[in-house]
């Protein structure tokens, strides 16, 4: 019997709570420690989830030799700093998406991880969900022939309140970083590669971050992704994949439990891949498996995959004139 | 009582048949003459629709002094030549969409029409449909506040057979000219202006025309249209308009009979504006009203409106490297 992997969690917001709840579905896992600089959140989190250790600083958590892996659940703008802290203490890291604000930051992290041979992965949970894994395999097996065009919309409606991470530039605001990370990754998953060209238009806020944007990715041999992200209006969260033999509809494409294939010959099949909880358990399982196998990165979702997406977002932001304090 | 307007029809294909059928819903209209260089089509059309005159050449039709207005229903590549023939014979023209292959051709036609003070209009029937007229008025009245983003998809699946006007470059093939004329016009209708920037990606066929493409238009103050056209896969023909106060869904946006407004406060209204026939009668009514008022162009859908759309398509085609014989 394997020894339980002891998780440390940095940041105690909503996403941390969801992740910790989903740990119940992960064999040989244990919520061991949490760290938050915010007293209220720390106590709230601690009372509910009952970790062995509660730290007031991230530094103390990463110094705890019993912590096997750290889940970084702070806001985007802190990912680089927090993850680097972990890596420099030789702690493996699963870092929330987007793993960094820009490709440059991620290159530094990859360097730090490789230097110490420490595991690092972006918490792009979508890639590990059963329906998505199944879908990618089926696409590779040619279920609809060559995919021609992908559409994916991810619009949510958040009020532009002061301090909102969706609107505050210093928190890494904007729809692209927060939601575009899903649309772009999904497109790369399906086409199985990175685009050769990207372009689009954005509506900027008064803080000069993207309130909403429409952008296209062009892949080799003319494959196209038509993507949208928004924090000021809600869209269905649907992806559609048009191929040579049919169309695939994926509702809630960033965390689907099913997908439907509509073949041009009239046949239709629905694949159901339900899961309990929120679905964060699958990325945790992958991280644990990598640790057990002493792998420093996932082969299913690699650091290079993360880097490609950040590079695309860098290109789009440059086109739109969006910079972050970290970029300067 | 007004004298019936005598229509002459050049080209006897599917669209001509639909138009002629819809003339039954137009007061004071009469199918007077048809012209086709194709014997079989001419006789087939003549037997069914029973025009007073049947001509073997377009030249003879435009010389018939009883013809009040000509409906040009040939394929795109002939629109310029056929319309010019009519205008030079001082015949008013309603010309199928796209009215020309490029903006340069249209500028010549506008010059020819203005010189002779002869009526000319592109048969952009969508603009005159009751649901669309109502929708545009409601948008102007602020039903959803300022529109932020429009999505419109127009994908059809046509086999790439030899001689197909969707694939043969010399016939003005490609999804943009044929279907993009609807998506782009719809976006201009709703935003009430022309974009300040356009860009997109296209998949080209072996003949170097666009099999499918995804393109975005950017308007003043960050309004965006995210559009798609395809002749190799079918999409729902739906337009969605996201605004400050709600979302409007327009099914079959190029010939809608209803639209639905989903307000963010939970309220929902559906506007029904049914019509008999195919819906081509409304553009014919507009053309006839212009003739009776001795107007040389429509104020609802002007030649400048047509020119703006062709200019957008020229820009996109240039970006994609698509040329037509007429362009050279």
Q: Any chance you could write out the topology, listing elements then pairs?
A:
The structure is a homodimer of 328-residue chains.
Chain A: E1 5-10, H1 14-22, E2 29-35, H2 39-49, E3 53-55, H3 58-63, E4 69-72, H4 76-88, E5 93-95, H5 103-116, E6 120-122, H6 130-140, E7 147-155, H7 175-191, E8 197-204, E9 210-218, E10 224-230, E11 238-243, E12 246-251, E13 258-263, E14 268-272, H8 281-292, H9 303-320
Parallel strand pairs in A: 1-2, 1-4, 2-3, 4-5, 5-6, 7-10
Antiparallel strand pairs in A: 7-11, 8-9, 9-10, 11-12, 12-13, 13-14
Describe the structure.
With 328 residues, chain A is an alpha/beta fold. Chain A folds into two domains: 5-124, NAD(P)-binding Rossmann-like Domain (Rossmann fold, 3-Layer(aba) Sandwich), CATH 3.40.50.720; 130-274, Dihydrodipicolinate Reductase, domain 2. Chain A has nine helices and 14 strands. In chain A, strands 8-9-10-7-11-12-13-14 form an eight-stranded mixed β-sheet, covered by helices on one side. In chain A, strands 3-2-1-4-5-6 form a six-stranded parallel β-sheet, sandwiched between helices. In chain A, strand 2, helix 2 and strand 3 (53-55) form a beta-alpha-beta unit. The longest helix of chain A has 18 residues, at 303-320. The radius of gyration of chain A is 20 Å and the shape is globular. The model of chain A has no long low-confidence stretch (mean pLDDT 96).
């Amino acid at each position: 019997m394997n020894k339980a992997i002891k998780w440390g969690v940095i940041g105690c917001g909503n996403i941390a709570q969801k992740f910790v709840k989903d740990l119940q579905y992960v064999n040989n896992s244990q919520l061991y420690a949490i760290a938050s600089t915010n007293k209220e959140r720390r106590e709230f989190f601690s009372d509910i989830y009952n970790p062995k250790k509660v730290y007031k600083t991230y530094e103390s958590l990463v110094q705890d030799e019993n912590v096997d892996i750290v889940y970084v659940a702070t806001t985007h703008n802190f990912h680089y700093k927090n993850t680097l802290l972990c890596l420099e203490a030789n702690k493996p890291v699963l870092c929330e998406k987007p793993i960094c604000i820009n490709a440059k930051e991620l290159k530094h992290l990859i360097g730090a991880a490789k230097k110490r041979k420490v595991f690092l992965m972006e918490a792009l949970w979508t890639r590990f969900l059963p329906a998505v894994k199944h879908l990618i395999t089926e696409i590779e097996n040619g279920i609809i022939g060559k995919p021609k065009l992908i559409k994916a919309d991810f619009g949510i409606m958040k009020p532009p309140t002061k301090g909102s991470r969706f609107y505050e530039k210093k928190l890494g605001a904007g729809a692209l970083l927060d939601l575009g990370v899903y649309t772009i990754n999904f497109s790369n998953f399906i086409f199985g590669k990175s685009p050769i060209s990207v372009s689009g238009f954005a509506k900027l806020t008064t803080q000069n971050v993207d309130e909403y944007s429409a952008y296209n990715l062009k892949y080799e041999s003319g494959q196209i992704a038509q993507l949208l992200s928004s924090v000021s209006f809600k869209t269905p969260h649907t992806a559609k994949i048009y191929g040579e033999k049919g169309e695939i509809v994926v509702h809630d494409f960033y965390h689907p439990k099913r997908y439907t294939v509509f073949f041009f010959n009239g046949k239709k099949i629905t694949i159901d891949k339900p899961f309990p909880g929120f679905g964060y358990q699958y990325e945790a399982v992958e991280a644990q498996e990598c640790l057990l196998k002493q792998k420093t990165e996932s082969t299913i979702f690699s650091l290079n995959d993360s880097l490609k997406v950040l590079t695309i977002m860098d290109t789009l932001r440059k086109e739109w004139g969006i910079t972050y304090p970290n970029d300067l």
